[in-house]
Amino acid sequence: MALAEDKNNILNKIKSAVSLDDLEKIRLYYLGKKGLIPEALKGLGSLSIEEKKSKGQELNIIKKLIEETIKDQKINIENKEIEKKLNSETIDVTLPPNISEQGKIHPISQTIFSIIEIFGNLNYVVETGPDIETDFNNFTALNIPEHHPAREMQDTFYINGDESNNVLRTHTSPVQVRTMLNTKPPIKIIVPGRTYRSDSDATHAPMFHQVEGLVVDESSTMVDLKSTLVTFLEEFFEVKNLQYRFRPSYFPFTEPSAEMDVAYTKINNKIKIGEGDDWLEILGCGMVNPIVLENCNIDSKKYQGFAFGMGIERLSMLKYGISDLRSFFDPNYRWLEHYGFSVLDSQTRSGL
Ligand code: PHE
Predict the structure, then answer these.
(1) Residue 1: predicted pLDDT
(2) What is the pLDDT of residues 190-249, one digit of tens each?
(3) How far is the CA of 130 from the centre of ligand 1 (A)?
(4) Distance of CA 132 to the CA centre of its chain
(5) Number of CB atoms found within 10 A of residue 164's CB
(6) What torsion, rounded to 10 degrees, do the Cα atoms 31, 32, 35, 39 define?
């Protein structure tokens, strides 16, 4: 029978198979249900016990050998195919990517791009800081000492299990501290980023975004603060002659402090920013408290400045007519298709 074939002959046949198809044919020929080996094993039935034993052993050894050789050859062929692919498929990284219509920029990202672009034109530099902050940067240096009632203004997430009193930053203001400790005035920064408070309902999310602004130099005043914010808001909402008002307020890190409201009207259930009889609170601001300057090793007799902070979701909702804050954080692709921005939008790109 064919199995009388030289063992080496069989193995050579396997080793010279060049495709997985060939290999499979060989496997079926020897090991398949009707293959030579199973047939030969069946044929043992008619032999004497002694012969059955020795022939059986022999067949099983050949069977194993064939199986192993086929396995090795399979790996060989597969490796060769990968190599061939790698050699033939080259990628031209200089070709433009195919980003035609797939994916959208999230409105929060888009809002951050616009904010950076507008303040960039006013010569502000972007600064960032970590989400996990020290108690000193988030509170103490900002003139919010321990047990001060102002700490209650913000429902803080404390980091459990470490002695450091670290917190998830409750605002972007700690980056004021970081920047003042690390650089000498003049300072002119904005800080977009994530912030956290233990709060959750239709208008509050436990994670949200703020943008902070800080200017420290020898001469900036409340008038500069006011004109900066008005310029920003008119640009951002694309309105001329924005109607606004400043209300006295309190923040431990600014003195005096104010909140800024902008006028709005509701037309067909849509909010139109800029004019009208209703007021919307939009941001907090003030002159940097000299105590904060001193806490950050800046001479408060020589330097002064202003700071402001606003919620990015809020700005985004007002600009793009999004009514529920929580929808920003839903993994809802259809929502993003509707409210998201095209990657090819020039506004988006210029913000990058
Ligand atoms: N950090 C304040 C807040 O989160 C906002 C603010 C920033 C107010 C800077 C004044 C100056 O509410």
Answers:
(1) 44
(2) 999 999 998 888 778 899 999 999 999 999 999 999 999 999 999 999 999 999 999 999
(3) 17
(4) 16
(5) 10
(6) 90
What count of Cα atoms within 13 Å lies in the side-chain half-sphere of residue 267? 7
Q: Is 192 a pocket residue for ligand 1 (Cβ < 6 Å)?
A: no
* Interval between CA 251 and ligand 1 midpoint (Å): 7
Measured from the CA of 176, which atom of ligand 1 is nearest?
9
**Residue 76 burial (10 A CB sphere; 0-12, 13-18, 19+):** middle
Residue nearest to atom 4 of ligand 1 (CA): 171
Cα–ligand 1 centroid distance for 16 (angstroms): 75
pLDDT for residue 4 is more than 70:
no
Q: Using the mean position of ligand 1's atoms as its centre, give its distance from the Cα of residue 180 in Å.
A: 16
CB 74 within 8 A of CB 23: yes
DSSP category for residue 313? H
Report pLDDT for 350: 43
Task: Give the CA dihedral 23, 29, 32, 33, nearest 10 degrees.
Answer: 160
Cα 238 to middle of ligand 1, angstroms: 24
- Which pLDDT band, with edges at 50, 70 and 90, does 289 fall under? very high
- Pull the structure tokens for residue 54: 């020795």
Q: How many A from CA of 315 to the centre of ligand 1?
A: 15
- 309: Cβ below 6 Å to ligand 1? yes
Residue 14 has pLDDT above 90, yes or no: yes
What does pTM read for this prediction? 0.71
Say yes or no: CB of residue 154 within 6 Å of ligand 1.
Answer: no
Instruction: Output phi, psi for 13, to 5 deg.
Output: -60, -45
Please tell me the distance from the alpha carbon of residue 194 to that of residue 128, in angstroms, as a whole number. 10
Number of H helices, E strands in the chain: 12, 10
Q: How many CB atoms lie within 10 A of CB 73?
A: 21
Cβ of 312 closer than 6 Å to ligand 1, yes or no, is no
Q: Which of 133, 152, 171, 249 to mutate to test the pocket of ligand 1 (most atoms within 8 A of CB)?
A: 171
Q: Which helix (H) or strand (E) holds 174?
A: helix 174-182
Ligand 1 atom at shortest distance from the alpha carbon of 285: 10
Q: What share of the chain is helix, strand, coil (3-state, %, to 5)?
A: 45, 20, 35
